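During the no-cost extension, the postdoctoral fellow (Dr. R.K.) reprocessed legacy sequence entries with the updated structure-token encoder. One reprocessed record is reproduced below for audit purposes.
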Amino acid sequence: MYRVMKSFICRGCSNPVTSTGRTSVDIGASANLEFVDKFCYLGDTLSVDGDADAAVEARIRIGWNKFLQLVPLLTNRDISLIRRGRLCSSCVRSSMLHGSETWPVRKE
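Re-encoded structure tokens follow.
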């Protein structure tokens, strides 16, 4: 039988689960599933309506966190500008764009 984790919180998400309205459904054998509007799965935020807005906001937050971790290296004048640019491109930009190929594109 599967063990259910009741209080898992992803480190990449600030508010991992939000729900409104009906809260759970019984699936039998003393197990319930909770209805939510959006949730974090493998670092990506998925929402009920299929929009990528929550995922984009999560990726922006992750990119800023990565940038703030690298500020001492990015402002170090002993490291060449080319290397600092490559560091920013490989770490910050790649963490922001991870999974962006699956975001739906729409004209607003």
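The mean pLDDT is 76. Helices lie at 53-74, 81-97. The remaining legacy entries will be reprocessed before the final report is submitted.
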